[in-house]
Structure formats: structure tokens, C-alpha cells
Design goal:
Layout (H helix, E strand, L loop, with lengths): L4 E3 L2 E4 L4 E6 L3 H4 L2 E7 L6 E7 L4 E3 L7 E6 L4 E6 L8 E8 L13 E4 L3 E6 L1
Parallel strand pairs: 2-11
Antiparallel strand pairs: 1-3, 3-8, 4-5, 4-9, 5-6, 7-8, 9-10, 9-11
Length: 125
């Protein structure tokens, strides 16, 4: 299986939009769970959205209604589309993959064994 590599972050005004990408390689097919997280330095990591191998998605409360997770299996890409960005959304955004074991993808972040390096999102007032 191939590494996870995030891209698409940057600086944006409040109210703007971004589409983050995760080059997921073989994990787009083999992992039971794929997910997006965010983390502010010194704060706990938050699970933003996840998708299981059957395409069922789940969304955390922090950004629910402003974010959409999708997969492009043809190109091995996991996307996170974010609308209505707020200054408090400023964070490093990570994608992550679990193994092949059946599990609740929204239950515990410890199931995610492989992480990307993160992409910085900075939202100005």
C-alpha cells in the first residue's frame, strides 16, 4: 500500500472555500476506514469526516453541514470540500487510513494506523 499525501491547504478569508486532497494510493480500495482530521498545535485532534469501504460517510459535529468527504477511486484521491470557512477552522488537516478490519469508523481515532503529513489551512477574519 502507498503513502498518504495531503494537499490543497492555504490561506483564505472567512467565508471562503477550499478543497483538500489526499493521494491515498492503494488505501482507497483496501482500508476499511478513511478519514479527515484537523489539529491546532497544543490541542487535541478532531475527527472531521470519515468514509467506510462501502461508501457510507460520517461527519463530526465541528464542521458538519460545511464539509463533504468524497472518494475518487479512479485516481486514488480522498477529498474534503469545505465551505464557509471560519477563523476557528485554522488548523493542520490530516488524512488517515485504517487497516482492513471491520469497525466503527467514527468510534476511535486509534484505529487509524497510517497518517499523512498534514496540510495547513489558515483562515483570516
Amino acid at each position: 500500500q502507498e503513502p498518504l499525501v495531503e494537499s490543497g491547504g492555504g490561506s483564505v478569508q472567512a467565508g471562503g472555500s477550499l478543497r483538500l486532497s489526499c493521494a491515498a494510493g492503494g488505501y482507497i480500495y483496501s482500508s476499511y476506514c478513511l478519514a479527515w482530521f484537523r489539529q491546532v498545535p497544543g490541542k487535541r485532534r478532531e475527527q472531521i469526516a470519515d468514509i467506510n469501504k462501502y461508501g457510507v460517510t460520517g461527519y463530526g459535529d465541528a464542521m458538519k453541514g460545511r464539509v463533504r468527504l468524497s472518494r475518487d477511486k479512479a485516481n486514488n484521491i480522498l477529498y474534503l470540500e469545505i465551505d464557509g470557512l471560519k477563523p476557528e477552522d485554522t488548523a493542520v488537516y490530516y488524512c488517515a487510513a485504517s487497516d482492513t478490519t471491520f469497525r466503527d469508523c467514527s468510534g476511535d481515532e486509534s484505529i487509524f494506523a497510517l497518517w499523512g503529513q498534514g496540510t495547513q489551512v489558515s483562515v483570516s477574519s
